[in-house]
Amino acid sequence: MLGERWLKVAFSYLYIRDFDRAMEAFRRAIACEPDNPACYFHGSVTALRNEDWEPALAWAEAAARLAPDNVLYQEHLCRVRALWAQRQTADEAAAGADSPNTPQTAQTPEGGAIEKEE
Fold first, then answer.
1. Domains of the chain
2. Are 59 and 48 in contact (CB under 8 A)?
3. Helices and strands in the chain, H and E counts
4. How far, in Å, CA of 63 to CA of 39, rounded?
5. 30 CA to centre of own chain
6. Neighbour tally for 3: CB within 10 Å
7. What's the pTM?
8. What's the chain's average pLDDT?
9. How many C-beta atoms lie closer than 10 Å to residue 114's C-beta?
10. Residue 27 burial (CB count, 10 A)
11. pLDDT digits 0-9 by tens, 49-80
């Protein structure tokens, strides 16, 4: 019951675009009702919007685990995983661009590394 109240508080903060306080309210909702997948799902959506990747992924996984028949939660988890992978790829590319003396490598289909010439 208290978790539902914290969800309403979180939604109120979202309405006024105070995303940090909304995140805190979702954390409290989860703490009060750790078996409520809605708390995790809505918290994950907000975390994703904030590009707060760790809770976005962890909470999406929790929502999908707690409600395996909920198609929306499953689709959201797929989306978070895809965006996480894109972010990781972009971060790796940026790290490679920051160090021009480091050789770049590509993976072969067999999993071996191929060094790219610059």
1. 2-116 (1.25.40.10)
2. no
3. 5, 2
4. 8
5. 16
6. 19
7. 0.76
8. 86
9. 9
10. 17
11. 999 999 999 999 999 999 999 999 999 999 99
Q: What is the 3-state secondary structure (H, E, C) of 69-113?
A: CCHHHHHHHHHHHHHHHHHHHHHHHHHHHHCCCCCEEEECCCCCE
CA 62 – CA 55 distance, rounded (Å):
10
Token pair for 27: 């954390």
Answer for the pair 34, 26: CB distance below 8 angstroms, yes or no.
no
Cα 9 to Cα 5: distance, rounded to the nearest angstrom? 6
Nearest to 53 by CA among 30, 25, 83, 73: 83
